[in-house]
Amino acid sequence: MLAEWANKAKELWQIVSGLALSIFGVLAILAIAVPILDEVSGKSIAISDISMPSDLAGRGYSPVVAASRLRDAVEAYVEEVSTVGQFSALSLAQEQPALVLPSLGLPLDVVGDTMARTFHLGGRKRITGEITDGPSGLSLRLRLNDRVIFQGSRRVRRGSDPADSIDALLAAAVPSILEQYAPYIEAAHLLDKEKLPDLAMQKAQAIIDALPDSNDNVPGAYIVFGIVYYQKKEYAAATGALRNAIRLRPNSPLAAVAWRNLGLIDVQQNKFDDAVADEQRSAAAEPGLDPLAELAVIYAEQGKNDQAIAENEAVLRLNPPASTAEGAYLNLGALYNREGKRDRALAAFESAARINPRSAEAHTALGTVLTMIGKLTPAASELRTAVRLDRRDGDAAFNLGVVESAQGKTEQAIADFRDALSLDPRRSAARFGLSNLYDAEGKSALAVEQLVAVLRYDPRNAIALNALGGAYYNEGKKDQAAAEWQKAIRIDPKLPDPYQNLAVYYASIGKPHEAKLSDERAIAADPTFAPAYYDLGLAYDTEKNYDAASRQFRHAILIDPKNSAYHRALGEAYARARKNDAAITEYQTAASLSPRNAGIYHDLAIIYDREGKHDRAAIESRKAHELNPNLAPRDLSRGHS
Questions:
Q1: Would you state the pLDDT for residue 115?
Q2: Total H helices, total E strands in the chain
């Protein structure tokens, strides 16, 4: 019975592990988006050459290079807003270029005139500036037309490359440039969780106070308010702010952004039909990839896999940018995995990894599916790649621990589970994994420590209470074990495991009646719980009620036909009831399922010997002896009790 409990504990952990392995988080592509206000006439800014000392220019850092680096700094700043806070559709590269960098080899006025004609822009602004080298180090001054908008300096440390200081100065100037162009981008930049959302709200409020409603920065500022309120889970306030943005620009890309964000809020409140309607309004205001991708997420959240798959496939048919295609393949893989279509999931994740070989998420997903289909060696390789690419990927570390545990690499698995816990101490599946490994090594105290930690974070975790009872039982603390199992039953009366474990406890202290009642309660809690039927069969077998024992073993086999222990137990019950032919059939089935189990061949030898089939008995006896030399042929004379 104790061996059966240990197997059940292992199965339970595998179930918990499986749940963790099947949840990738790749469906979380729905996000608040802040667009660049690029279509407004008169808002284009052209970056001209930035002059600098001749010695720096002579080292390859020319005025044109400086202008190029400034544009790169602006794009990096803007792109950070598009990714750090899970924002979308915020990249200069996807919009009309509002910051115009002159091409090499063309006069500035020619490029400027060309851009003005192309985008029909009037009143175009120009940034000029200079870098100087003085007593305080390198200094940068930038002017918008003739007005100074930034000045700063940086001392060059001895032995360092002056170019690094120039890059730092240019990066420091970016917020000042954006304040002239789209000031709410700086507000959005503060929404990174490591920064200050309240300061973002202050900047957004300043925009609303200073600018007329006709200025496109104002609805953008309301979107910033919506983001902050959403992060604070103040959904009513977020909805009000986003509806203000829609009111000011009802048929614009800004309205599309606001509708998408309203859809996100509806998803958080489980208003999926409203979320679908919001996304449809978003698509009407600005057709494109985002509404399709976000509809896919909403359908996935609803469990409507077919619709979600169709939306992701529609995204891919539109030949999206690489990052969007990667996300769609990751989503498709998760959806196929949810449906148990492992081959399709694997193909989708492989496509994501081909698009972005440095995607830790794609390698984690690949490793996870490979684990599920039993390909542990390639799974471990993919998961190690994911860990190398992103040391913060707790899923990869945990899943690698599962794989290495299954491969018998205990020390590596323990290290992986500990890595996962260092990233998230509340990851209960990793603690279950550690507990099982420690328990297998006979380190019961360490196993208990991990389960107690699970309960510290989640005191009503019935699975953890059940496992803690098992750990106490293995330590010989039977009464403490029973107390934990009784707690688990009070919290979750439908969990069958603690009833069956209590049956083990009652049987061990000489209370067979209570043991049988506890097994019957386990079956009542879950009629598909095979171990309780098996346990009950063992109890009847002890009472020499072989017909009742056989019935229970047959129930267990119906539920789990590939469990050799159940077939062997039924064979023993038949043998004791002198139903030799039936016993032989069950023993043979058990042997086919567990061909390395010497005891099964030994039992077969006894039955054949009893029937006078001594040649067959000798064959089975030799098999048993080869696997276990302690099972000598002379044991056959004892017969089967």
A1: 33
A2: 31, 5
User: 127: which 2 tokens?
Assistant: 């940034």
Residue 297 binned pLDDT confidence (cut-offs 50, 70, 90): confident
Neighbours of 484 (CB within 10 A): 24
d(CA 62, CA 391): 39
H or E stretch covering 142: strand 137-144
User: Residue 477 is encoded by which pair of tokens?
Assistant: 């603390």
For 546, phi then psi, to 5°, come to -70, -30
Helix (H, G, I), strand (E, B) or coil at 223: helix
In this prediction the pTM is 0.59
**What is the predicted pLDDT for the residue at 452?**
94
10 Å CB burial of residue 578 (0-12, 13-18, 19+) is exposed
Note the pLDDT tens digit of each residue in 232-258. Answer: 889 999 999 999 999 998 887 778 888
Q: Tell me if 92 sits within 8 A of 86, measured CB to CB.
A: no
Convert the pLDDT of each residue in 368-409 to its tens digit.
999 999 899 999 999 999 999 998 888 899 999 999 998 999
Residue 327 one-letter amino acid: G
Distances 159 to 155, 156, 200 between C-alpha atoms, Å: 12, 8, 39
Answer yes or no: is pLDDT of 332 > 60.
yes
Q: Which residues are paired to 126 by β-bridges? A: 46
- Give CA–CA dist 571/582, Å, rounded: 7
The 10s digit of each residue's pLDDT in 595-629 is: 999 999 999 999 999 889 999 999 999 999 999 88
Q: Where are the alpha helices (DSSP H) in 84-211?
A: 108-119, 162-181, 184-189, 197-210
Distance between CA atoms of 260 and 242, rounded to whole angstroms? 10
HSE-CB at 295 with a 13 A cutoff on CA atoms is: 23
Which residue, among 292, 306, 330, 77, has the nearest Cα to 179 in the 3D structure?
77
Quote the tokens at residue 623. 């098999």
Asked if residue 371 lies in contact with residue 402, where contact means CB atoms within 8 angstroms, the answer is yes
| Pairwise pLDDT comparison (51 vs 372), residue with the higher score | 372
**Cα–Cα separations (whole angstroms), residue 453 to 432, 450, 457:** 10, 5, 7
Rounded Cα–Cα distance for residues 558 and 563 (Å): 10
Residue 98, φ and ψ in degrees, nearest 5: -90, -20
- Positive or negative, the CA dihedral 332, 333, 335, 336 is positive
**Token pair 């969990």 in the structure block, residue:** 495
The Cα–Cα gap between 470 and 11 comes to 13
Q: Measured between alpha carbons, how far is 262 from 268 in angstroms, rounded to an integer?
A: 10
464 to 357, 448, 501, 523: CA distances (angstroms)? 38, 10, 14, 21
Phi first, then psi: give them for residue 140, nearest 5 degrees.
-125, 130
**Closest alpha carbon to 496 in 157, 12, 120:** 12
Rounded CA-CA distance 389/392 in Å is 9
Alpha-carbon 250 to chain mean position = 36
Structure confidence at residue 9 (pLDDT): 36
Q: Would the CA dihedral through 72, 74, 80, 81 be positive or negative?
A: negative
Rg of the Cα trace of the chain? 34
Could you give the CA distance from residue 116 to residue 576 in angstroms, rounded to a whole number?
98
Cβ atoms of 70 and 170 within 8 Å: the answer is yes
| Spatial separation of the C-alpha atoms in residues 21 and 431, rounded to whole Å | 15
- In the sheet with 99-100, reading across from the earlier edge strand, the strands are 99-100, 45-51, 125-134, 137-144, 147-154
Q: Pick the closest to residue 416 from 408, 432, 405, 428 (CA basis).
A: 405
Per-chain mean pLDDT for the chain: 78
